[in-house]
Amino acid sequence: MSTPGVHPAVKSTAYRLMKPHQVVETEIEHRVPERHVVIEPTLGSICHADLRYFSGNRRPEALARKLPMALIHEGIGTVVDSRAPELRIGQRVAVVPNIPGYLIHGIAPEDCCPACRNGTGENYCQKGRFLGSGTDGIAQNRLVVPAECAIPIPDEVPGEIAVLVELCTVSYQALVHVKSKLDSARIAVFGDGPVGYLAAAVLRYVYGVGEERLHVFGAVPEKLAQFDFATTSLVQEYDFSAGDSYDIALECAGGRFSESAINQAIDVLSPCGHLILMGVSEERVPINTRDVLEKGITMRGSSRSSRADFHPVMAAMKDPAFQRTLGKLLPEKRTPVASAADFARAMEYAESHRGWHKVLLQFQW
Fold first, then answer.
1. What is the DSSP letter of 76?
2. What are its cofactors (predicted)?
């Protein structure tokens, strides 16, 4: 245990992305302020956001501003040093990558920024940091974060399930703003990839939306078949001009499919319906504004979660049915990572195999 009142430092071996496709092992140093913990990452999961950095699929000015940087923001680990009494050495924790500025600087929320001061939400903090996006992420052997951003993993939750918690919390956060409607609303999810799958799973197992009110639209029969807890339809066979209407729609397709998914969602939404945008596209997307106006549709974007979202999702992960559903995204085996070269190979593999299953990194420090 570190001495109270002293800010010791810890050295960390990081796999830093120097430029697209180039990863170098680098030693960095972190201060360990009071109420912070030192975590040794054990499992990480590769996100499409990581791949956009690795492949150079971001704007040149963004890459120039953010690199060099250790990637990965989806991960779990073990506490190896703690300056917070509620977290003990040896405890398994999930990492919250979105760290609000007031926790970083040890100040009150009202002294941080307008978003923290007025309660807009920690995920909009103007002085915060996001691991693996402008600050070093989980691909390092000693990660230092505020204790509030290290969420204990219940004994009932296996590590390979817990590593998916950050992804699930993104969906949970997106739905918080329509939570009061979820008891009776009819909901459509557009997208049969991992983002759509997790959004639908969170609706079913965290928010309790039944199959009869949860409709998933996708384009690939094999992927759509995985959604055995929801009603499903292939977009190429569904008549959007004569189908059912929905109170809430989630666009989870992203990329080049964003345009069709957004406009199909607009087609099926009821007057005064809610459209939640979750799919990421690097290009501008044309949408049917006429029907948005005529129907009075509310549109809201959401891409990050906050630490408050982790607790209800982690509690729900104790449910064996939720675990079985999440387990369909897991690969047959984990990818061992013991060097910068191993990390780069894992990223190259994930870039060239953008399939259904996640790529899980088993860190071997």
1. E
2. Zn(2+)
pLDDT digits (tens, 9 = 90+) for 140-157: 999 999 999 999 999 999
Where along the chain do the CATH 3.40.50.720 domains lie? Answer: 169-301
CA 144 from chain centre, in angstroms, equals 19
pTM: predicted TM-score of the whole model, two decimal places: 0.91
Distance of CA 213 to the CA centre of its chain: 25
Radius of gyration (Cα) for the chain, nearest Å?
Answer: 21
How far is the C-alpha of 138 from the C-alpha of 107, rounded, in Å? 25
Q: Which fold has domain 9-97+132-164+329-363?
A: Quinone Oxidoreductase; Chain A, domain 1 (3.90.180)
Pairing state between β 335-337 and 360-363: parallel
Summarize pLDDT for 188-210 with one digit per residue, the tens: 999 999 999 999 999 999 999 99
Q: Whole-angstrom Cα distance, residue 24 to residue 27?
A: 10
pLDDT at position 2, please? 45
> How many Å separate Cα 121 from the centre of its chain?
16
Q: Which of 272, 344, 324 is nearest to 160 (CA)?
A: 324
**Measured between alpha carbons, how far is 306 from 339 in angstroms, rounded to an integer?**
31
Whether residue 148 contacts residue 86, with contact meaning beta carbons closer than 8 Å, is answered with no
Q: Which residue has the tokens 């509620």?
A: 86
The CATH number of the domain covering residues in 169-301: 3.40.50.720
Nearest-angstrom CA–CA distance, 157 and 231: 27
Residue 83 exposed, middle or buried by CB count within 10 Å (0-12, 13-18, 19+)? buried
The DSSP result for 273-299, as a single string, is EEEEE----SS-----HHHHHHHT-EE
- Omega cis (within 30) before 68: yes
Please check the confidence at residue 187 and state whether its pLDDT lies above 90: yes
